[in-house]
Amino acid sequence: MELSRHLQDHMAIMKDYYQTTGSGKVSSKTENKFDEIYDKSRDVDSSNAKEFLKSLDPKELKTLQSFHYLADKINVDSLSNEGAYNLLQHRYEQLDINGDGLVQSGVADLIPTFPQNMDNELKSSVVDSLKQMKAEGAPDKELFLVSSMLTFKFNSHTILAGVRRDLGIQDSVETPKNDYNSIAEIHHRMHNPLPGEHRSDEIINAFDKFFDILNQNYSGNKTTTSNDGKESSKTEEENDERSSIGKDFFDKVRADGGMLNYIQKENYRKIEEKIEEKKDELIEKYGEDNMNQIEKELTEYRKQLLKELEAKSEKKLLSNDNVLADLLEIF
Predict the structure, then answer these.
(1) Residue 318 class from Cβ within 10 Å (0-12 exposed, 13-18 middle, 19+ buried)?
(2) What is the model's pLDDT at position 175?
(3) Using an 8 Å Cβ cutoff, are 86 and 50 in contact?
(4) Taking a C-beta distance cutoff of 8 angstroms, is the pair 106, 79 a contact?
(5) What is the pTM of this model?
(6) How wide is the angle at C-alpha 176 spanned by C-alphas 174 and 180, nearest 5°?
(7) DSSP characters over 32-89
(8) Do the Cβ atoms of 92 and 23 come closer than 8 Å?
(9) Mind listing the pLDDT tens digit for each residue in 43-55?
(10) Are 301 and 278 in contact (CB under 8 A)?
């Protein structure tokens, strides 16, 4: 598929981001199997991706499922063109083709770290700042906390629109301009929370560190909007709206599944890593000739890990009405 220079640069930045944060890593065995499929699909675009997927055997579809951390088997007929196309891409190459603000991967709607139409210079400076944090010894959790705050800020309009759709509210949500001011607003709210808001010292310290480095790295426009009474009142009104619909939304998320695959995906990655480690232990214990027993025990182990994740997530989500703050404290 022919890509604009902006999208090519966007992909290069996203590749740098995933390499920096380690997000989306899979075992080398899975990655090698995926690359074999990837190499065969280079002439495929969104219009014929489903046709290509139908040509793959069950083992190859299983590889795509594992590579993209999909919970269910791939049913090609249920996929959109965008969802099918993105299954054949590395994570940093996945695109929002239909322009709805989400990236479809299989049947999952994923919240992108950076919207595609966001300024590439700012994206690059954000990634460079995360790299510098890592080089200076920041733990992976700090990188994840900062990335999560940025992701929710950059995609807040998309998240809110999805919340309103799930609650049966059919109207439009204004798309903000994601610029330096968006990041400065996060920093301001960290130190000037609205009534009822709370941020842990861990999150505040991590974002302070990131924001200081960003100000050194970013040479673009840093003009910020003043926080006068009118703007503060609007922000508080929006926050109240998020708080009031938060519990209903997460009831639906728990019951039916929803949009917040971004954070869930990070946890599924950790679960898959634990399962890979467990598998190696079981092979050493039983030998490769007893794969039926090994698969049986791995199935039970997976259920145990998912149950622990569900319990931990539910406890945290019910503890406070501030939805986004809670999400960042779960993991």
Answers:
(1) exposed
(2) 62
(3) no
(4) yes
(5) 0.67
(6) 170
(7) HHHHHHHHHTTT--TTTHHHHHHTS-HHHHHHHHHHTT-SS---GGG--HHHHHHHTS
(8) no
(9) 999 999 999 999 9
(10) yes
Give the long-range contacts of residues 228-237, CB within 8 A, separation 24 or more.
235/189, 235/194, 236/194, 236/195
The DSSP output letter for 109 is E
Both tokens assigned to 208 = 């302070």
Closest among 58, 277, 253, 68 to 166, alpha carbons compared: 253
Residue owning tokens 């009822």: 196
Distances (CA, A) of 35 to 31, 83, 90, 278, 305: 6, 18, 9, 25, 28
Pair of tokens at residue 177: 């301009």
Report the C-alpha gap between 126 and 115 in whole angstroms. 13
Nearest C-alpha neighbor of 38 from the set 88, 96, 86: 88
CB 197 within 8 A of CB 242: no
Please provide the distance, in angstroms rounded to a whole number, between the alpha carbons at the two ends of the chain: 37
Tell me the angle at which helices 140-154 and 156-166 cross, rounded to the nearest 10 degrees: 70
d(CA 172, CA 179) in angstroms, rounded, equals 21
Q: Which residues, in sequence order, are CB contacts of 200 under 8 Å at separation 6+?
A: 329
pLDDT in tens, 11-28: 999 999 999 988 878 889
Tell me phi and psi for residue 103, to 5 degrees: -110, 115
Q: What does the block give as tokens for 313?
A: 């997530």
| Alpha helical stretches, state H, the chain | 5-21, 28-40, 49-54, 58-67, 81-87, 120-135, 140-154, 156-166, 180-191, 201-217, 229-256, 261-286, 291-317, 323-330
d(CA 259, CA 253): 8
Question: Residue 109 — φ and ψ, nearest 5°?
Answer: -100, 110
Token pair in block for residue 286 = 């039983």
Residues 246-256: what's their mean pLDDT? 43
Taking CA 110 as the corner, what is the angle to CA 105 and CA 115, rounded to the nearest 5 degrees? 110
Structure tokens at 271: 């679960």
